[in-house]
Design brief:
Shape of chain A: globular
Radius of gyration of chain A: 33 Å
CATH architecture of the largest domain in chain B: 2-Layer Sandwich
Number of strands of chain B: 10
Shape of chain B: globular
Number of strands of chain A: 23
Distance between the termini of chain B: 36 Å
Structural class of chain B: alpha+beta
Largest sheet of chain A: 7 strands, mixed
Number of helices of chain B: 13
Largest interface: A-B, 38 and 35 residues
Oligomer: heterodimer
Largest sheet of chain B: 5 strands, mixed
CATH superfamily of the largest domain in chain B: DNA polymerase, Y-family, little finger domain
Radius of gyration of chain B: 25 Å
Strand content of chain A: 5-15%
Number of helices of chain A: 46
Structural class of chain A: alpha/beta
Chain lengths: 1134, 340
C-alpha cells in the first residue's frame, strides 16, 4: 500500500485552498499516487469535481471535510465581548478547534451532509460567525465517519503547550464516539518551536498515539498543488482574515502535494524525533494507507453520480408506477381541449414524443415541471418556458410553454431524443419580482427534504484579486481601490495582459513595477472560490434522499435552503434542476397590465391573441423605426440598428431578428446575406433543392440550431436525433475531424456533389455551436411582441412597469427621456400624488401621464415612502412633516426636487428648506415627537430674501436626488455651447451625407466592448442628446482608443467628432476623437472662445501625471453622485 | 483705522518660532503667533514709528525675513484680522496683498462663504443648498433669515461680519503653548499589539528623558494613531499629577492605546505628545510604596548615563533585543517650545 494524502483543501475552500481539484488530481497522478482525498474547509462543494477529476486522472477519490468543532462538554459559543475597536474592526474569529472527517461509506457521506447542514442552521440561528459543529451533533452522526485529530484539534493543541496529561484526557470523548475510527494526525511542515507544523509537535502527536494506543497518520495538510504557491496561500489568508500578511506568520511553503518519497522522508524524521527509529515510519505510513483504504465511498453508487432522482410519483398526482399513463392522459385531454386532435400531424408528433419520454423513463420529470408551472399560475404569476423545451409538443400541452411548436416549425429533437441520455432542460421565465414566492410554493409542494436552491461559487476575478493581493501586501486601501476599479471585469489571470494591452490602463501599466508582486499574486488567485451565493434561478428537486446526498445551508437574505453544489455538480449528480429565471420584463408587463386596469378599468389579457395580436401593425411599425428601446430583447444598440435594417413585418421576422444578432451569426457573417435576400437585392440561394424546406424561412441562411440539425439529417440521410448529436459535436474541436469524415462519407453516399457537400459543410462549421435555438427565440419573441404592443398602445403604463422593475440595460433617465420624446406627459415627484411606485395617472384631458415614484428619491426608506403615500393629501408643510415624519435629509431632498411645491403656498424651494429645518428643530426639541405642535410659525415668504433655485440648480438637484432629469432634458443646459461648436443633433444626422465629419454630443447611456468578427477591440457607445432623434450610436475602432478610451469610459457627458456611416436606414457615427463636455463647458466659461479652442486642442487623457493614473475619477464635475447613470457591459481583454 | 498683517509659514518647525518672533517684534510689539499657521501683526502704531506706509513696512518685513531666515512667505493685510487672513489666503509665497479700508467690503463680499470665521464645512454645505456661496450672497440676506439658518447668536455674528466686515478680535501678544512630541513610524502595517506597546514604551522613555533634561513636566498626553488609509485617531488624557516620570507616562500611553481596542486596524505610525508645564510649579505625591521611590532614583541614574554615553545607553529590557529588527522604525522627534 502506498501513501495517500488524507488532508487536502482545494480552491473550493473559500479563501483557503490555492489549487482547484482538477490541478490537485492531475499532480497526484503525476506523482504516482493511486488515491487522493479532498477535505475542503467547511464545505463539500468540491466533491463532484474531485470525483470527476480523479476519474479522469485514474485515481480513487476519498471524500471528507475539514470542520471546526465545539469542544466536548462546552455548550454555547464562548465569545468574550471585548471593547469595540475604534478603527479597523474586530478580528475574524477562527479560534475553534478543527478536525478532519472522512466518509467511509454511504452512511458516512449522509452523516457528513447532515452534520454540515445542521452546523449551517445553527450558524444562521447565531447570526453568522464561524461554522462550528457542536460535539453532540458528531456523537449522533458518527457512523461511517473516520476522524483525524491534527494540530488544530483540542488534544493536540494541549500537546503543543506540553500538557500531555490534558491531551490524553481530552481524547476520551472522541474515543468514546468514534471508537476504532479515531486517528491522530501528525503534520511536519519544518516549522520551528512546538507549534502546529513543527517537528516536535508531530513527534509528540506520534508519542501520544502510541501511549493511548491509537493509530497515527501522517498528513501534509495540503493547501496547494505545487511548491512555490505559499505566497498565494498567504494572500488567501489575508483576504479571509481581512488583514495584511504579518511577518513571521506566513505560510511555511511546505503545504504542497508532496510525492510519496518526500512523505516517507518526513515520516522517517518524525519517527526519529519521537524515538521510534525502528519501524515507526513504516507504521505511520501504513496507518495512513489503511485509513485511506477503509474509505470506500463510491462516487457512482453512493453519491448517486450519473443517475436520476425524481420526486416520488404521488407528489405529482400519479399513483406509483402510473406516471406514464397520467402524462398521456393529460396530454390527450389538452389536445382535445385545444382542438388539435383532428390534425394528424399533431397526433403523430404527440405519440412519438411520448414514446421517447417513456423509453427514457422520464414521465415524472414532465409531470413535476407541469406541477410547478400550475402552482405558479395559481399564484397569478406570469410564467412561460424558454429554451429548447418550447420545441416539444408535450411541454406545450402541459401548459408549460405558450408557443405551439408544430405550426411554428419547431422540432423536438433539439430538446430531447433517445440518443441523448442526459436530462433535458426545461427553463421557465417568471416575473422577477415574485421569484421567491415560487420557490416557497415549490418548497411547500414537495417538502424541504426534496427541494433546495443551487449555489453559485463566487470566484476571484481581477478586481477582487487585486484588492486581496493589495491588502496582503499592505498597500493603502484607497490606492488599491483605485487600481482595482480601473480594471474592466476580466479574469484575474488576465491582469497583466490587460495592463499591457488596454490603452485606458496604459498610465497604470507605466507604474506597474511600483507595486511589486501585486500582479503575480492577483493572477494566482484566478478561479479560486471566495464565497458562495445562491444561484439566481436554479431550484433542484429530488426524492426524499436529497439531504443525504447534499449538505444544505440557509441563504443569507431569504433563508431558503441552498445546496453546496453548483449547477454543473447538480447535473452530474442526477438531481432534477429546474431553472426558474426571473425576467424583469415579465414583471414589468404584469405591472403595466395592472396599471391599465387601475386607471382605465380595462382588463387586458396579453396572452390572448384576440386582444394582443402578435403581429400588431402599430407595434411592428414602431420597431421598424428603430423605436425598440425597452422592448424585450430588442433594446441593445445592435438590435435597434438591426431592426431598422431588417424592417420586421411578421412575428417570424422577430424570431429571426432575435437569433441573428448573436456571436455565431455575427462571426459567420450571416446578417448581410440575409438582409440582401430579404430586401430583394439577391435571390435566396440554396446549396441543393433538398435543403430548401429547412432554410426557406431564413432565405437560405443558417440562423437556428434546428436548421443545423435539419441540414445534417438531410445531407447524411439520418434522423433528426442524429442530427442533434452531430450539432453538439460541432462545438467540440476534438470531435470535429471525426464528424467531418462521417458527414462527407454519408453525404457522398447520398449522392450529393462535392460542391454541395463543401458548401454545406462551410455553412455548418461557421455556425459552430453559437446558434440560437429557434424554440428559444420563438419563446422570447412572444414577450417581444407583447412588450412592443404595450409600448405602442399603452405607453404610460408600459413605462411605469419598465421603470418600476428596472429598465434593463439602460439607465432610468434614458427610459424617462424616451417616454417624454414619445409624448407621454411626465408628472414630477409630488408628495401629494406620488407613491412608492411608478404610476400611470389620468390627466384632465383624458390622457395617461407617468408619475415619478418616491422610491427613487435618494435616501428614502420603504417605510417612509409608504407613510408619505398613506398620509395623502396634506394641507401644508407642517402637516406633511408631522404625519409623514420624513427624516431631515429626505425632507430636504424632496424640497429640492420640487416634490413639496404643492404644499408651498407661494414659498419657493429654498424657503421650504428653511421651514423644514425649523420644523425639524421643533420636532427634535419637543418632548414627545408625535405630539401635536399647535403653532407652526413660519415667517412670511417674502421676508427671507433667499435666492430662488435657478433652472440649472433644479436640474442638478434632480440628477443628484433622483438620478433622472424629470422636468427637462439635461442637455438643454449646454445648448449655447453646442450651438457654438456646431454640433449636429441626432434627428438631423440623416440629412448629413455618408462619410462627412460631424460633431455629436450627449449623455452616455451605454458602453460596450462586445466580441466582433475581426477580434479587434471595438468600443460601442450610445449618446442621448435630448433631440427628437433620441440616441446617437457611436463606434470607436482600436486606432482611436489611445486618446478616446479614457474619456469614453470615465466621463459621462461627451462631445465626439466622427464620420457618418449608414447601413440600411440606420445611421451611426464612427468616432475619431472624444472630449468631456463638462471640461469644454468649464473652459468656455472661464476662457471664452479662446479657452474653448485650447481645450479642444489639448491632447486628452490618458493623463501623464501618475496621480491621475490610479484615479481615473479625477474631479471633472461630470460624475454625478449616487445613482448609476449609464450601462457598462463587461469589457474584454482581447 | 487698524492695519493688521497675517504672515503665513505653516510648514516651519516649532523650534524656529522664537527666532522668527524676534524679527516681528523688531517691527511691532503686537505679535500673536499662531502655531502651525503663522503670525498676526498689528502694525497700526508701528506705521507712525517707522514713518512708512503699510506697503513699505511689509516690504521691509519681507526683506528681513529673507535676509535673516532665508524665508519667502506670503503676507496679507487689511483693516481687520478677518480681512488680513482672507488676503493672505489668496497669495502665493513671496506675494503681498494689502486690502485698504475702502476696498475691504468689496473684497470681503467676493470671498467664498467658507472663509468667514464661524462657517465650518457643515454650515457651508447648508448655505450652499440655500444658494449662498459667497459672503456677498450672505450679506444680501436679511438678518432674520441668517439667524433662522444658523441659529440666533451665530446668525447675528455672521450677519455683522458679512455686512460690515465687523471683526473686533484683537491681536494679543502671546507665545504658543509649549509641548513636545515624538513619533514612531512603522515600515509596514503594524497589527501586532505587542509591537505597538514596545513602540509606545520607547516613545514614553524618550519623552521622559526630554522632559527631565528640560526641567519640564507633562500635564497631559495625547496619543495619535495614523492608519494605512491616512486617517488618524487622537486621544488626550490628563495625568493624575504633572510629572516627567517615565513609568507614569508609559502607563498613561498604554491606557490610551488599550482604550482604542484596536484589532485589525492597520497602524502606520504612533505619536505621543506631552503638554508641558514648568517642573517648579508642580508637586509630587509621596507614596508608601518603596518601589516608586526606587524607580525614581533609577531614573536619575539612567538620565546621567544617557548624558554621558548618549541616548538609549540604558533602556528597558523590552526594547533591548528587538525580536525582529526591521519592525521598529527610527524615532522621529519634534520639539515644541519648552518651558523657560
Amino acid at each position: 500500500m502506498s501513501y495517500v494524502h488524507l488532508h487536502v483543501a482545494s480552491g473550493h475552500s473559500a479563501r483557503y485552498g490555492a489549487s482547484l481539484p482538477a490541478d490537485l488530481a492531475q499532480r497526484a497522478a503525476e506523482r504516482g499516487y493511486e488515491a487522493l482525498a479532498l477535505t475542503d474547509r467547511d464545505t463539500l462543494g468540491g466533491a463532484v469535481r474531485h470525483a470527476d477529476a480523479c476519474a479522469r486522472a485514474g485515481l480513487r477519490p476519498v471524500f471528507g471535510a475539514d470542520l471546526a468543532v465545539r469542544a466536548p462538554g462546552t455548550v454555547g459559543p464562548t465569545t468574550v465581548r471585548g471593547r469595540t475597536p475604534v478603527r479597523g474592526g474586530t478580528f475574524v474569529d477562527e479560534s475553534a478547534p478543527r478536525m478532519v472527517l472522512l466518509a467511509r461509506d454511504r452512511t458516512g457521506w449522509a452523516n457528513l451532509c447532515r452534520i454540515i447542514s445542521a452546523g449551517h442552521t445553527l450558524r444562521a440561528a447565531a447570526g453568522g460567525g464561524q461554522l462550528v459543529i457542536p460535539f453532540d451533533l458528531l456523537q449522533s452522526h458518527a457512523e461511517g465517519l473516520t476522524v483525524l485529530l491534527g494540530p488544530a484539534s483540542e488534544p493536540v493543541r494541549a500537546l503543543a503547550v506540553g500538557r500531555t496529561d490534558q491531551a490524553a484526557r481530552l481524547l476520551g470523548p472522541w474515543r468514546e464516539t468514534f471508537g476504532p475510527h479515531l486517528r491522530l494526525e501528525a503534520v511536519h511542515h519544518r516549522r520551528p518551536g512546538t507549534g502546529p507544523g513543527s517537528l516536535r509537535l508531530a513527534a509528540r502527536t506520534m508519542g501520544l498515539a502510541r501511549a493511548a494506543d491509537l493509530p497515527c497518520v501522517l498528513s501534509n495538510a495540503v493547501r496547494y498543488a505545487d511548491p512555490g504557491q505559499g505566497p498565494i496561500a498567504d494572500v488567501l489568508d489575508a483576504d479571509r482574515l481581512l488583514m495584511p500578511v504579518r511577518p513571521g506568520r506566513t505560510d511555511s511553503g511546505e503545504r504542497w502535494l508532496k510525492s510519496g518519497a518526500d512523505m516517507a522522508a518526513l515520516a522517517e524524521e518524525v519517527a526519529r524525533a519521537a524515538g521510534l527509529e525502528h519501524g515507526g515510519a513504516a507504521h505511520l505510513l501504513a496507518a495512513t494507507a489503511r485509513t485511506a483504504g477503509e474509505c470506500r465511498l463510491d462516487p457512482a453508487a453512493d453519491l448517486g453520480l450519473g443517475r436520476v432522482h425524481f420526486p416520488e410519483e404521488r407528489l405529482v398526482g400519479a399513483a406509483p408506477g402510473s406516471a406514464a399513463r397520467v402524462l398521456r392522459e393529460r396530454c390527450e385531454a389538452a389536445l382535445r381541449e385545444r382542438g388539435y386532435d383532428r390534425i394528424p400531424a399533431m397526433r403523430d408528433r404527440l405519440d412519438s414524443e411520448l414514446q421517447v419520454i417513456q423509453t427514457l423513463g422520464w414521465p415524472t420529470y414532465f409531470l413535476t415541471v407541469a406541477r410547478v408551472v400550475d402552482d405558479t399560475r395559481a399564484l397569478g404569476i406570469r410564467v412561460q418556458a424558454r429554451g429548447s423545451a418550447a420545441g416539444s409538443l408535450v411541454v406545450h400541452l402541459l401548459g408549460i410553454s405558450v408557443a405551439e411548436p408544430v405550426s411554428n416549425g419547431l422540432i423536438m429533437e433539439r430538446f430531447l431524443s433517445e440518443r441523448r441520455k442526459s436530462l433535458p432542460d426545461i427553463d421557465i421565465d417568471v416575473e422577477s419580482a415574485r421569484r421567491t414566492e415560487i420557490y416557497r410554493a415549490v418548497l411547500d409542494r414537495f417538502g424541504p427534504e426534496r427541494v433546495a436552491t443551487v449555489s453559485m461559487p463566487e470566484t476571484y476575478r481581477v478586481r477582487h484579486a487585486v484588492r486581496a493581493a493589495g491588502l496582503a501586501l499592505g498597500i493603502a486601501p484607497d490606492e488599491v481601490g483605485k487600481i482595482a476599479k480601473s480594471f474592466p471585469h476580466v479574469r484575474a489571470r488576465d491582469a497583466r495582459r490587460a495592463l499591457a494591452e488596454l490603452p485606458e490602463l496604459r498610465p497604470l501599466a507605466d507604474r506597474a513595477e511600483h507595486y511589486g508582486r501585486l500582479w503575480e499574486l492577483a493572477e494566482g488567485l484566478d478561479g479560486l472560490v471566495r464565497g458562495t451565493a445562491m444561484h439566481p434561478c436554479g431550484v433542484l428537486l429530488s426524492d426524499d434522499s436529497l439531504l443525504e446526498r447534499t449538505p444544505v445551508q440557509p441563504t443569507a437574505t431569504e433563508q431558503l435552503p441552498m445546496s453546496a453544489f453548483d449547477k454543473d455538480d447538480v447535473e452530474r449528480m442526477g438531481l432534477l434542476k429546474l431553472d426558474i429565471l426571473g425576467v424583469r420584463m415579465q414583471s414589468s408587463m404584469a405591472y403595466a397590465v395592472a396599471e391599465i386596469r387601475r386607471t382605465t378599468g380595462r382588463v387586458l389579457d396579453i396572452d390572448d391573441r384576440a386582444q394582443v395580436p402578435l403581429e400588431d401593425p402599430e407595434a411592428l411599425a414602431m420597431l421598424r423605426e428603430g423605436q425598440s428601446l425597452s422592448v424585450f430583447q430588442l433594446e441593445s444598440p445592435g438590435q435597434r440598428e438591426l431592426a431598422a435594417r431588417l424592417r420586421p413585418e411578421t412575428f417570424q421576422d422577430l424570431v429571426t431578428q432575435i437569433s441573428l444578432f448573436r456571436p455565431g451569426p455575427v462571426q459567420a457573417d450571416m446578417i448581410r446575406p440575409f438582409l440582401d435576400a430579404r430586401h430583394g437585392k439577391r435571390r435566396p440561394r440554396y446549396p441543393h433543392p433538398d435543403l430548401e424546406p429547412a432554410l426557406r424561412v431564413t432565405l437560405g441562411v443558417v440562423v437556428f440550431n434546428e436548421q443545423v440539425i435539419q441540414l445534417f439529417s438531410t445531407m447524411t440521410r439520418t434522423d433528426l436525433a442524429m442530427g442533434e448529436e452531430a450539432r453538439r459535436a460541432l462545438s467540440d474541436p476534438a470531435r470535429l475531424p471525426v464528424l467531418e469524415a462521417w458527414y462527407r462519407e454519408r453525404a457522398r453516399n447520398a449522392s450529393y456533389t462535392p460542391q454541395v457537400i463543401d458548401e454545406v459543410w462551410t455553412m455548418l462549421k461557421n455556425m459552430g455551436s453559437y446558434g440560437f435555438a429557434r424554440a428559444h427565440a420563438t419563446a422570447f419573441a412572444l414577450a417581444t411582441a407583447q412588450s412592443a404592443y404595450l409600448k405602442a398602445h399603452f405607453p404610460a403604463p408600459f413605462y411605469a412597469g419598465v421603470l418600476e422593475h428596472d429598465p434593463g440595460m439602460y439607465p432610468k433617465r434614458l427610459v424617462l427621456a424616451e417616454a417624454r420624446r414619445r409624448g407621454v406627459p411626465i408628472l414630477p415627484a409630488d408628495v401629494q400624488h406620488s407613491t412608492a411606485h411608478y404610476r400611470a395617472e389620468t390627466l384632465d384631458d383624458g390622457r395617461l401621464g407617468l408619475r415619478i415614484a418616491l422610491a427613487d428619491v435618494h435616501g428614502i426608506t420603504a417605510e417612509e415612502a409608504a407613510r408619505i403615500a398613506a398620509g395623502q393629501p396634506y394641507t401644508d408643510l407642517a402637516d406633511f412633516h408631522l404625519r409623514a415624519r420624513p427624516s431631515q435629509p429626505l425632507a430636504r431632498n424632496l424640497a429640492r426636487i420640487g416634490a413639496l411645491d404643492a404644499l408651498a403656498h407661494g414659498a419657493h424651494r429654498r424657503e421650504l428648506l428653511l421651514q423644514l429645518d425649523e420644523l425639524h428643530r421643533t420636532r427634535r426639541q419637543a418632548a414627545m415627537p408625535a405630539q401635536l405642535t399647535l403653532t407652526t410659525d413660519t415667517a412670511p415668504a417674502a421676508a427671507t430674501g433667499l435666492p430662488e433655485m435657478s433652472d440649472q440648480e433644479q436640474l442638478d438637484a434632480e440628477l443628484e436626488v433622483l438620478g433622472m432629469d424629470t422636468t427637462r432634458h439635461l442637455m438643454t443646459s449646454h445648448t449655447a455651447l453646442l450651438t457654438e461648436l456646431g454640433v449636429t443633433p441626432a434627428h438631423q444626422l440623416h440629412q448629413v451625407p455618408t462619410g462627412q465629419t460631424v460633431l455629436v454630443a450627449g449623455a452616455k447611456v451605454a458602453i460596450q466592448t462586445p466580441p466582433t468578427r475581426s477580434q479587434r477591440r471595438t468600443i460601442f457607445t450610445s449618446l442621448d442628446d435630448g433631440s427628437p432623434g433620441g440616441i446617437v450610436d457611436l463606434v470607436f475602432f482600436d486606432d482611436t482608443h489611445e486618446q478616446a478610451a479614457h474619456v469614453l469610459f470615465h466621463r459621462w457627458l461627451l462631445v465626439v467628432r466622427g464620420q457618418v456611416q449608414r447601413r440600411g436606414s440606420s445611421i451611426s457615427v464612427v468616432g475619431q476623437r472624444a472630449w468631456s463636455l463638462a471640461d469644454l463647458a468649464t473652459a468656455h466659461q472661464s476662457g471664452g472662445p479662446a479657452g474653448l479652442r485650447a481645450a479642444l486642442a489639448t491632447t486628452p487623457a490618458p493623463a501623464t501625471t501618475p496621480a491621475s493614473v490610479v484615479s481615473p475619477e479625477t474631479p471633472g464635475g461630470d460624475r454625478p453622485s449616487g445613482a448609476r447613470l449609464w450601462h457598462a457591459s463587461p469589457g474584454s481583454a482581447g | 483705522m487698524n492695519t493688521i498683517l497675517h504672515v503665513r509659514f505653516p510648514h516651519l518647525p516649532f523650534e524656529a518660532y522664537p527666532e522668527l518672533s524676534g524679527v516681528f517684534t523688531d517691527i511691532t510689539p503686537a505679535v500673536q503667533i499662531l502655531p502651525g499657521d503663522g503670525a498676526l501683526l498689528d502694525i497700526t502704531g508701528a506705521l507712525r514709528y517707522w514713518r512708512r506706509t503699510p506697503a513699505q513696512l511689509t516690504d521691509l518685513l519681507q526683506t528681513r525675513l529673507l535676509a535673516r531666515h532665508d524665508l519667502t512667505v506670503p503676507i496679507g493685510g487689511g483693516p481687520t484680522r478677518m480681512i488680513a487672513t482672507m488676503a493672505v489666503t489668496t497669495c502665493h509665497p513671496g506675494q503681498v496683498r494689502l486690502i485698504s479700508a475702502d476696498e475691504a467690503l468689496a473684497f470681503l463680499h467676493r470671498q467664498a462663504v467658507r472663509a468667514l470665521p464661524g462657517v465650518g464645512p457643515v454650515l457651508e454645505r447648508t448655505l450652499a443648498q440655500y444658494g449662498i456661496t459667497t459672503i456677498g450672497d450672505l450679506a444680501a440676506l436679511p438678518a432674520g433669515t441668517v439667524q433662522r439658518i444658523a441659529g440666533a447668536a451665530l446668525g447675528r455674528q455672521l450677519h455683522d461680519r458679512a455686512t460690515r466686515g465687523f471683526d473686533p478680535r484683537p491681536i494679543t501678544p502671546a507665545a504658543p503653548a509649549a509641548s513636545t512630541s515624538t513619533t514612531r513610524r512603522f515600515p509596514r502595517d503594524e497589527l501586532d499589539p505587542d509591537q505597538r506597546r514596545r513602540a509606545l514604551l520607547a516613545l514614553a522613555c524618550e519623552l521622559g528623558t526630554v522632559l527631565r533634561t528640560r526641567r519640564a513636566v507633562a500635564t497631559r498626553l495625547t496619543l495619535s494613531v495614523k492608519y494605512a488609509d491616512a486617517s488618524e485617531t487622537t486621544r488626550t488624557r490628563a495625568l493624575g499629577e504633572p510629572t516627567a516620570h517615565t513609568p507614569a507616562l508609559r502607563d498613561l500611553a498604554y491606557q490610551l492605546h488599550d482604550g482604542l481596542g484596536l484589532q485589525r486596524a492597520r497602524v502606520r505610525a504612533l505619536a505621543l505628545r506631552a503638554d508641558l508645564a514648568d517642573d517648579r510649579c508642580t508637586a509630587h505625591q509621596l507614596t508608601l510604596d518603596p518601589g516608586d521611590e526606587r524607580r525614581r532614583r533609577i531614573e536619575a541614574v539612567i538620565d546621567r548615563t544617557e548624558t554621558r554615553y548618549g541616548r538609549g545607553a540604558l533602556a528597558p529590557a523590552a526594547l533591548a533585543t528587538p525580536p525582529r529588527a526591521r519592525t521598529t522604525g527610527r524615532p522621529v522627534r519634534t520639539y515644541g517650545r519648552g518651558c523657560r
